[in-house]
Specification:
It is a single chain. The chain contains 10 helices and 12 strands. With 281 residues, the chain is an alpha/beta fold. It folds into 2 domains: 143 residues, Oxidized Rhodanese, domain 1 (3-Layer(aba) Sandwich); 120 residues, 3-Layer(aba) Sandwich (Oxidized Rhodanese, domain 1), CATH 3.40.250. It has a 5-stranded parallel sheet, with helices on both faces. Helix 4 crosses helix 9. The protein is globular, with a radius of gyration of 18 Å.
Length: 281
């Protein structure tokens, strides 16, 4: 296997395809500006045996926010219908390489899956390796997923209000620098520009190269350049909780098992009327 316990190479995955206890998950999701449609693309071509994880559907159905974590019951039912058990080796990938898949990697682990990997380089690396693809809708055999939610994995708005006043806690924002600084408008209507007081900015793209997670030494250098101690307590955030998980992946790769993710992220914080917002770098 890959030296990083959270990654698997295309060649390694190709050798294991079809074996019992392996679940392959296409977690592609795109921003409107990217002008791509994840599920139709899945039906055109995906890794053989893969299922499609809809990040807009496996959510809390009553939350007004995008991508809000569902209950353990909703998650277990949804992924069970996808044929996934918590005891499986679960390999997650996306169509850009390293964009939306870490969110689903993080979700499976937050709900108790034991062995979750990211495909190193994602679907582009799979295609570049001349590995096989198939088309059509997935038709998995249902399975039972025993979900056990780790409440320490996620931070709520109430906890975040306290966290910004805690000098020992590092809040790290994965959004682009211009949005963090309040120099660019937020893409969602009604969401203020800027960032949380005391937050650090580390755009998630600085942790990737050619759709792959950078080496541990490069990750350490990126965190250091952002002023962040990757061994200390961290809460990650982004626009809506998707790319923040790239930071969580990087932190776990560096051995930080205590990093948490603010699920509401900037859509919730910047959309509220009573949360403090600052601008500038």
């Amino acid at each position: 296997m890959s030296h990083n316990p959270f990654l698997i190479t295309p060649d390694e995955l190709a050798e294991r395809l079809g074996r019992p206890g392996l679940s392959v998950v296409d977690a592609s999701w795109y921003l409107p500006a990217q002008k791509r449609m994840a599920e139709p693309e899945f039906e055109i071509a995906h890794i053989p045996g893969a299922v499609f994880f809809d990040q807009d559907a496996i959510v809390d159905p009553v939350s007004p926010l995008p991508h809000t974590l569902p209950s353990a019951e909703i998650f277990a039912d949804a992924v069970g219908r996808l044929g996934i058990a918590e005891t499986d080796t679960i390999v997650v990938y996306d169509g850009l390489g390293l964009f939306s898949a870490p969110r689903v990697w993080w979700m499976f682990r937050a709900f108790g899956a034991r062995d979750v990997r990211l495909l190193d380089g994602g679907f582009p690396a799979w295609r570049n390796g001349d590995h096989p693809v198939e088309s059509g809708k997935a038709a998995p055999e249902p399975a039972t997923f025993q979900a056990r939610f780790d409440t320490d994995a996620v931070v709520t708005l109430a906890q975040m209000r306290r966290a910004v006043d805690d000098p020992a806690l590092q809040v790290v924002d994965a959004r682009p620098a211009d949005r963090f600084a309040g120099e660019a408008a937020e893409p969602r209507e009604g969401v203020r520009s800027g960032h949380m007081p005391g937050a650090f900015n580390l755009p998630f793209l600085q942790l990737a190269e050619d759709g792959r997670l950078k080496s541990p030494d490069e990750l350490r250098a990126a965190f250091a350049a952002a002023g962040v101690d990757p061994t200390g307590p961290v809460v990650t955030s982004c626009g809506s909780g998707v790319t923040a998980a790239v930071l969580n992946l990087a932190l776990e790769t560096l051995g930080n098992r205590q990093a948490r993710l603010y699920d509401g992220s900037w859509t919730e914080w910047g959309g509220a009327t009573d949360t403090p917002v600052v601008t500038g770098h």
